[in-house]
Amino acid sequence: MSIKQNLNQIKSSLPEQVTLVAVSKTKPVSEIMEAYNAGQRIFGENKIQEMVEKQEEMPNDIEWHMIGHVQRNKVKYMASFVSLIHGVENFRTLKEINKQAKKHERVINCLLQIKIAEEDSKFGMTANEASEILRSNEFEELKNIKVVGVMGMATFTDDQDQIKTEFTQLKTTSNQLKSLNSDLEIISMGMSGDYPLAIACGSNMIRVGSRIFGERNYN
Questions:
Q1: Where along the chain do its domains lie?
Q2: CATH value of 3-213 in 3.20.20.10, 3.40.50.300, 3.60.40.10, 3.30.450.20
Q3: DSSP label at 144?
Q4: Half-sphere exposure of 60 toward its Cβ, with a 13 Å CA cutoff?
Q5: H helical segments located in 88-186
Q6: How far apart are CA 176 and CA 168, in angstroms?
Q7: CA torsion sign, 51 to 52 to 53 to 55?
Q8: Nearest one of 74, 138, 79, 136 to 110, comparing CA atoms
Q9: Which long-range contacts (CB under 8 A, 24 or more apart) does 69-73 make?
Q10: How many CA atoms does the CB half-sphere of 213 hold within 13 Å?
Q11: In degrees to the nearest 10, what's the CA dihedral of 135, 137, 140, 144?
C-alpha cells in the first residue's frame, strides 16, 4: 500500500472530531511530501532540529507539531513556526516557550503531558501538578502560550485492559482540568498500535506514524 492509500484508509475510519497528526520523524521530505500531496497538513516530529530542517524545505501551510521530549535550550529554534507542542511536562518548560514565543510576537499552543504509564521511561506530570499549574498566578502571567489540552502515552504493553485504564485516566484528568480552564479541548492520545482504543476512550487527536509511512528504520 502506498502512503496515500494508508492515509486515506485511516482517515476514512476516523470520527470527524478526531485530528490526525502524521508522525514524520526520521522520514525523508520526499515521503512526507507524498502525504502532503494526499491532503495531509499536520505533521509531528520528535526532534526540534529535524523539524526545523524539514520546515525550511516544505510548504508553508503545514502545521508542525512537536511531539517528543522538549529540551528547553532548543525551544528557540522552533518558536517562530511550531503550531502545537505536545510534550510540556513542567512549568519551567512552559515559561521558556512563553519567553521564546514573545520574541516572535506569537502565542504558542501547548498540551500538558500527563504521566499515565507505569514505565519510568515515560515523561510527564501528575494530574495534581497540572492543576497546580493551571491555578497558579505565575501561569496567569504567561501571555504568549495557551494550554489547549493534555497529552499522554500509554505503557508499551499488549495488555489492552491496562492501556484502556491508562487512556481512561487521561480522559478523567482532562475533564477535571477543564473545570479549571475551559481552553483544554484537546486529548492527544493513541498511536499506530492503539489509536482505535484511544478514540473509544475519548481521544480527539492521534499521532500515527508507521501505519502511514511504514515501519521506521533506525539504522
A1: 3-213
A2: 3.20.20.10
A3: S
A4: 1
A5: 91-103, 127-135, 137-140, 160-178
A6: 12
A7: positive
A8: 79
A9: 69/123, 70/97, 72/96
A10: 26
A11: -120
- Three cell numbers written together for 165: 485504564
The DSSP line for 6-68 is HHHHHHHHS-TTPEEEEE-TT--HHHHHHHHHTT--EEEES-HHHHHHHHHHS-TTPEEEE-S
Q: pTM above 0.90?
A: yes
Cell of 43: 505533521
Cell numbers at residue 8, please?
486515506
pLDDT per residue, tens digit, the chain (219 aa), is 899 999 999 999 999 999 999 999 999 999 999 999 999 999 999 999 999 999 999 999 999 999 999 999 999 999 999 999 999 999 999 999 999 999 999 999 999 999 999 877 668 999 999 999 999 999 999 999 999 999 999 998 999 999 999 999 999 999 999 999 999 999 999 999 999 999 999 999 999 999 999 876 554
